[in-house]
Amino acid sequence: MKEKLEQIRREALKKLQETQDLNTLNEIRVSILGKKGELTSIMKGMKDLSPEERPQFGQMVNDVRKNIEEILNETKQALEDAALEKKLKKEVIDVTLPAKKSKIGHKHPNTIALEEIERIFIGMGYEVVEGPEVEYDYYNFEALNIPANHPAKDEQDTFYVNSDIVLRTQTSPIQVRTMEKGKLPIRMIAPGRVFRSDEVDATHSPSFHQIEGMVIDKNVTFADLKGTLQQFAKEMFGEDTKIKFRPHHFPFTEPSAEVDVSCFKCGGKGCRFCKGEGWIEILGCGMVHPHVLEMSNIDPNEYSGFAFGLGLERIALLKYEIDDMRLLYENDIRFLEQF
Ligand SMILES: [Zn+2]
C-alpha cells in the first residue's frame, strides 16, 4: 500500500508538471483529492492494515495530500499568472491603428425646420417662449375666447386629464401666460408639442408641433402682420415667394386670415406638388381679438397686436417634400439619414 501511495504521488506530480491549463488542473484535483479520488479510495484500504500500522499510514496519506495540494496551488498560480500575462500582451493598445469611426447622429427634420423658423424670428427681434404641455382648460380655451360650447372642446378632439385640465391642443396658451405677466410690448414665438385625439394617417397624428407667434404693442396693424409673414415666407421658402391672405375665422383673432405661399416648386404656375393650385396653405393668423387682450388685462384702446400659428410638421413636410407625416415619427434611420 505504501508503494501504491508513492505511485499516486509520483503520477500526480508528473501530471501537474505537464498540465498547461486551468481546466486540466481542476480535473487532476478532482481525480486525486476529490470524494471519489485516488487518495480517498486508498484510505478505504486502511481497514486491511493492522491497528498499529493504521495511524502511520494515515499520516503518510496526509503528507502526500499536503504535498500534492501545495504543488497544485503553485501550478495554479503559475498558470493564472501566465494567462494574465498573455491577456495583457494581447490587449496592448496599438496607437498607430486607424481610429474606430464613431457615428454621430444628426438633427431630425422637425428640429432642422424649427431651428430655421426660430432663427428667422429671432432675427426680427422675437423671443422664444415655452409653456406646459399639460394645461388648464382656462388657458387652452377660455382665455383664448373659445367658449364652453365650442366644437374644439369636444372630447373627440381634445384629451382631457380631468374637467379642468387638458393636454394642450395648441401652443396659444403660452401667449395668454405671457400676456398675463403684464410686460409690454410682447414679441414672441412659442414652439411646442400639442395633442389632439386624431387617428394616425398621412396628415394627422395625435401629437404634433405648433409654432405660434404674437406681437403686442402700440399701433400694431394688419400691415405689420403682412410684412412680417412676407419676410418669413421669403426667408423660409425663397426670395421670390409671394403670400396671399384668405379671410377666415378664429376665435382668438379678429379679423382672421389663412395664409398661402406661392408654390416654391413651380413658382405659382401649378404643379403636382401644389395640386395645380400654384399656392400652398401654411398658416393661420389675425389681429388679436380685443376681448382676448381684455381678459389678460391689456387695454385694447391703447394696445393692439397680431398672432399667427403654423404646424411645424407641415413646414418640414413642405420644405423636404415628404408626402407622409408618419415618416417623421417612425425613426427609420434610412429615412432620417436623408436630411
Ligand atoms: Zn406648384
UniProtKB/TrEMBL annotation:
An example Gene Ontology biological process: phenylalanyl-tRNA aminoacylation
Keywords tagged on the record: Aminoacyl-tRNA synthetase, ATP-binding, Cytoplasm, Ligase, Magnesium, Metal-binding, Nucleotide-binding, Protein biosynthesis
GO molecular function terms noted in the UniProt entry: ATP binding; catalytic activity, acting on a protein; magnesium ion binding; phenylalanine-tRNA ligase activity; transferase activity; tRNA binding
Residue ranges constituting the Aminoacyl-transfer RNA synthetases class-II family profile domain according to the UniProt record: 117-330
GO cellular component, one term: cytoplasm
Binding site for Mg(2+): E254
Keyword DNA damage: no
The protein's assembly and partners: Tetramer of two alpha and two beta subunits.
Full protein name: Phenylalanine--tRNA ligase alpha subunit
Organism: Eubacterium oxidoreducens
